[in-house]
GDP-mannose pyrophosphatase (Bauldia litoralis), 208 residues
Amino acid sequence: MKDETPDAAPVQIVDRKLLSDDWATLTKYTLDYRRRDGAQETLIRQVYDRGHGAAILPYDPDRGTVLLVRQFRLPVYLVDGRGWLIEACAGLLDELDPEAAIRNEAVEELGYEMKGISRVFDTYTSPGSVSERLALFVARYSPADRISAGGGAEEEGEDIEVMEPTLDAALAMVAAGQITDAKTIMLLQYLKMNGLPPDKARQGEERA
């Protein structure tokens, strides 16, 4: 099959104006863009940049369970008046590589030390205005991997409930509209369709 992916977009940034620089940055861009029909036009866009992140969905194949979190999200509250969101464990990279960052988040939020971790794909969840790219992981876990209660970093205002539904129950929550977070839905569907990737460390032990 012929690869029809275009090269870099025919764009020239002609101006940028910083609108906000607090927890993240909001920048207004003016750019010249050449359309596919050859016509040239000037566009104005705003981009919110908070850095890149990672998320993980741990799965226990023996019990058929996954680890999720439930926490308050202000943007969700402003939309639905409730604000509680069920999600996969996630966090910003903070200058770490994605795997190291998500291992730290799993200990902090879930209370589990992850083993058999696999990066399955990357995604942009809101590319029209947010520059964040998420690295998505799945991992094998068992009750023996729990090292703390989790719950997040209290000093950062986190108040996280750890949930452990079965994979099928979590997918039923998606169908019922109880899980609406995009990264979480993608990871649940990936796991249902593909299962866990082979555990290379475990395969090496078996061959030895």
About this structure: The first strand starts at residue 11 and ends at 21.
